[in-house]
Amino acid sequence: MGTVVEQYKYEQKKINHVFHYTSNFTDLQKIVRLGFIPSYCKEEIGNDKYLTPMVSFCNIPIVEVDKYMRYGKNGIGMSLTWAKKKGLSPVIYTHDNSPYQSILGQLSLLKLQFDLDEYMDNKKYNFMGDDPNSLFALDRVSLTYKINLKILQFLKNWQTEYQGDKIITYQEREWRYVPNNEKVDPLIKDGSLIYDDYLDKKIKPKPHLPNFPLEIDELSDIKYIVVTTDKQREKIIGTLNNRFKEEETTRALITGKLSILTASQIRNDF
Can you give the C-alpha Rg of the chain in angstroms? Predict the structure, then answer.
């Protein structure tokens, strides 16, 4: 009699949403009406500090949403399908011995080696008259510059400090939206004239980039909304009714395709 080998298929748990937090309920209402507005946020990788425009989300189970409410007591969970359609991407987590630590320095060297701004504007180099080998080298430097710049925009320390406590950011499974528009400065380095201005909320209050919203196209893009009180729940339903159709909102809530929860419900019921 032959032996029977049982094979077990391991299925990963699917988290089909990304969650964004906000501290102000009126900001939550604005997100429903206008979409997510990017702002310049500070990153510190190794000894380098810089700002990059973004909207951040956590790809975490709904049962864990309460753990990260230090970022805001209100939240909105968007479908992962929407996130991928809109170009959101998981960040790259890094640490002291990570090979990504020196990218900002490499970026500065590339900028010094060639005047990339003039090259991109086609003001200095004539493709018909210049040395083809020089142009080829310039193309490679330009491509390397763009790649390093994009990587920098998606770097995140795996551990950081938040209000005096050590935070393992790696557990947040951050996804990030970074606007890709030539009118938006992709990186602002520490020491530049406007770096400190963006850190001062009085000089440049958030959100910084109202003209470049990350839009919510359909009600079905929203899976969860978290508020702090029952009264806020009623208000956000009104906001949804105004942004979409009232029948559509009612149907989504009845069928469970959209859930509006309070923080205490998540804490006690999940």
Answer: 23
Point out the residues of the chain with pLDDT beneath 50. 1, 112, 116, 123, 125-129, 132
Supply 171's token pair: 């557990």
Of 135, 113, 139, nearest to 125 by C-alpha is 135
Q: Distances from the Cα of 37 to the Cαs of 89, 91, 183, 237, in angstroms?
A: 17, 19, 15, 21
Query: From CA 215, how far away is CA 220, in angstroms rounded?
Result: 13
Closest CA to 45 of 90, 103, 89, 108: 103
| Residue whose token pair is 């990788």 | 45
Collapsed DSSP state (helix, strand, coil) of residue 243: helix
Residues of the chain by 3-state class (helix, strand, coil), percent to 5: 40, 25, 35
Q: Rounded CA gap, 88 and 172, in Å?
A: 15
Measured distance CA(233)–CA(235) in Å, rounded: 5
Tokens of 178: 């970074």
Q: In whole angstroms, what is the distance from residue 122 CA to residue 140 CA? A: 16
Here the tokens at position 8 are 């077990």
Q: How far apart are CA 113 and CA 141, in angstroms?
A: 9
